[in-house]
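In this supplementary section we document a worked example of the pipeline. Step one takes a protein sequence of length 449 as its only input; no multiple sequence alignment statistics are reported here. Step two produces a three-dimensional model, which step three serialises into structure tokens for compact storage. The input and output of this example are shown verbatim.
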Amino acid sequence: MATQQFQHLSIDQLCGHTYVCDCGKTHRVDTKRIVVEPGAMTKTPEILTNCGIHGRLLLVWDNNTYRVAGHTVESALQAAGWDFKTFNLGDTVHADELAIGRVLMATEDETGIDAIIAVGSGTLNDCVRYVAGRTGIPYVIIGTAPSMDGYASKMAPITIDRFKRTFLSTFPTAVIAEPKILAEAPDIMLAAGLGDVIGKVTALVDWVLGREILGETYCTQLVHMVSQALRTVSAAAEEVKNHDHHAAAQVMEALVLTGIAMQMNDDSRPASGCEHHLSHYWEIVHGIQGVDTPLHGNKVGVGTVLIQKMQRKMLELPADALYYKPMNAIQRTTWEKEVRRAFGPLGDEAIYEYDISVLQGDDPLGRLRKNWDALKAEMAGLMALSDAEAVLRTGNAPILPSDLGITRDMVRDALLYSKEVRGRYTVLRLAHDIGILDQWVDEVMAEPI
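The serialised model returned by step three reads:
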């Protein structure tokens, strides 16, 4: 079967199709519609019907999302004669066991629930996605803020026992959003959307490392899609800051497009690298401390600025620096002690995540070393897609960890140990494996934090 080109299609054109790709994978987009346009919420009944959704609905929102969008969706469905019940998660919602349990219980209905309509953004979408994935009930997300990239993804980041875990779950049948509603989101949520998109610049470089060191499948068409999202959002940062409707829609479409890329790749590699691990680590620590954590996208943006500094250091390395240096017994003992300190009661789980991803073989970095000159040029090209700090500054988004109340100690621990959040190969893993991570962290920490 001939391979198919898809990287130039719009997000709605991508929907509902299967693509045979020259990367070796067959990519599927199971989401049937993505509608980001004026009046989209009032078209919800029509969109549901076009997607093959019928029967009794469960509408899920919180107090804030009901105010900005839920009442409009509710009225549209009432006017169209749909059968539904509603569930309000309240004021303060976290994507954790409690919220998931509450949504799951809301699906228990003596007449049955045929689809769930979520009205919200990151936290609410993750909770409903997880429940939809476990119950097999299709769901639709009505987006209220261009604040994160998970709208069209199959991945559900959920905090379980205070440890951030990413579950392969399910896709939304449709994504619906209105530019006016998106543009009216609070400044900090608009900044979070910028941060989450900008994080792709370091994620793509990390993907190259995964390809070369672990032999991961790497799709140039998906890289092209994500690169286009990066360029678009980088150019729109100032208009986003000013709550421009068109720019807010551009950010939303970029976020959804990167979610589609994750859906097509069956994992989050095209859009998530160690900048996300920093964010997850800070969220874990905040959970242990019992304090609220900043928005995911804001933490990702700040993390991306730090990781770009690491990746620039990586490009300065000569090939003969790329030899694997496994920890000896003394180093291992010290490392375990530090991981348990950094992760508190979750230390053993972090150690497990590291151990299942330790490099194997006599010379696991040999391929990287052999192709280093060409790889440096390739990665430099990806890094040139966006200067994270400049874009965030233009968009009036947080740049330094201190902008988010993240302490210097939390920054150091994240740079040293967030690689234990998930066994994915990144620039931080490479620096650790060649014995240079401590030095790089010291150099980065010498700059404003």
